[in-house]
Amino acid sequence: MSPIVILETDYETIDDAIAAKDAYAADLTNQGIPFQQQTLYRATDGARVFMITPIEPEAEADEPRRASSKSRTRRTSPQRRRDRTQ
Known about the structure:
By secondary structure, the protein is of the alpha+beta class. The chain has helices at residues 14-30, 57-62, 78-85; strands spanning 4-7, 35-41, 48-54.
């Protein structure tokens, strides 16, 4: 799915823009689609830009997993191995 972009300037008031953002977010939530929300600001005039980005289930599964909390065994240096075998 493509990101949903809501410009503050497309609405009469900021409250209307926020209500539209919340409606899109509620719709995605009702459909069970995970998403991220961001509030950005236009460089030209400082107007708010609300971005809602649906997260594809495949993309969620492709993210690298955190390393396990198991401690890793340290390798001994070659010199230490020689000392142990003598």
